[in-house]
Amino acid sequence: MADGQSPHGPGEEPLAPAGPVGPAxxxxxxxxxxxxxxxxxxxxxxxxxxxxxxxxATTEGIDALGRLSFEQHDxxxxxxxPQSIAEIAAxxxxxLNVVRVLAEDLRSVGQLSVHVPDSxxxxxxxxxxxxxxxxxxxxxxxxxxxxxx
Length: 149
Fold this sequence. Notes:
Blueprint: H1 29-32, H2 40-45, E1 54-57, H3 59-63, H4 70-78, E2 83-84, H5 85-92, H6 96-108, E3 112-115, H7 119-122, H8 125-136
Antiparallel strand pairs: 1-2, 1-3
Protein name: Multi-component regulatory system-4
Pfam families: DUF742
InterPro entries: DUF742
């Protein structure tokens, strides 16, 4: 206004501009995997890697870190110590299937070593109980532990 007064009445605040609020949305999973739902090795075998599959970076993977995409770089860097697919997905906040596809790709070029656990051990009820207890021991975003059964 010409006289320096606000166009809003007394006590009124101007409306915020319309648009997104908060952080920008994450990249869609299908963009990270170029639309693929199976990695190089999985396409040949027809089986997805179980979530408990352990991944370990190879020397070739560590040497290639500077040439990898962001997600591949993060996976290989995280796998300097053995990590399960589930742990990597949670740690990097990536969709589980994205980690599977990228891990298969990295394995096929020798940048990750993959160790699938013995299926007899993974179906043991005591292992499942320890996993559940371990998950309950992780505090939520407020630092509060989950209730147990």
